[in-house]
């Protein structure tokens, strides 16, 4: 009763932190950080474009939790590699289009910075799509 040490909680925490050390964990964490920064910059300068960052942030967080908690092995009616590939591929295309539009329109410094970060996000999501392409493995 007095012992508050729970080995299962420690094991669960270790599993979660081990995922952060993998390539997929680093990619998803970087995508979340980039989406939050783009969301902040778009909210300040061009609120119409911020919905893309919100949607991609939510999707990246969902996939981060699914992979971190190892739910992709427990929920097998969804093909996770293809779902992750399509998420990353569509995000790369949408960020590329949105960033080009924002950079062509020209505006404030925060808008230009958001456009440049959008291009970085497009390359990050594109690399994630390349790495997670299921037929490549």
UniProtKB/TrEMBL annotation:
Bilayer-crossing regions: 26-46, 52-73, 85-104, 110-131
Bilayer topology annotation: Multi-pass membrane protein
InterPro entries, sorted: Marvel (IPR008253), MARVEL-CKLF_proteins (IPR050578)
Record key words, sorted: Membrane, Transmembrane, Transmembrane helix
Subcellular location: Membrane
Keyword Membrane: yes
First-listed, main subcellular location of the protein, grouped into a coarse class: membrane
Gene Ontology CC: one annotated term: membrane
One of the Pfam families matching this protein, by short name: MARVEL
Domain MARVEL: 19-137
Top-level lineage group: Eukaryota
Function noted in UniProt: May play a role in cell differentiation in the intestinal epithelium.
Protein name, UniProt field: Proteolipid protein 2
Species in which this protein is naturally found: Catagonus wagneri (Chacoan peccary)
């Amino acid at each position: 009763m007095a012992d508050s040490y729970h080995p299962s909680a420690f094991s669960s925490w270790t599993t979660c932190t081990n995922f952060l050390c993998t390539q997929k964990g680093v990619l998803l964490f970087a995508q979340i950080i980039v989406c939050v920064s783009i969301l902040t910059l778009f909210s300040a300068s061009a609120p119409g474009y911020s919905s893309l960052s919100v949607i991609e942030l939510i999707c990246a967080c969902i996939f981060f939790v699914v992979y971190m908690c190892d739910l992709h092995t427990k929920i097998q009616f969804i093909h996770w590699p293809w779902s992750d590939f399509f998420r990353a591929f569509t995000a790369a295309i949408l960020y590329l289009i949105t960033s080009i539009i924002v950079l062509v329109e020209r505006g404030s410094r925060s808008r230009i910075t958001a456009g440049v970060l959008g291009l970085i996000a497009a390359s990050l999501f594109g690399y994630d799509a390349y790495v997670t392409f299921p037929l490549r493995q």
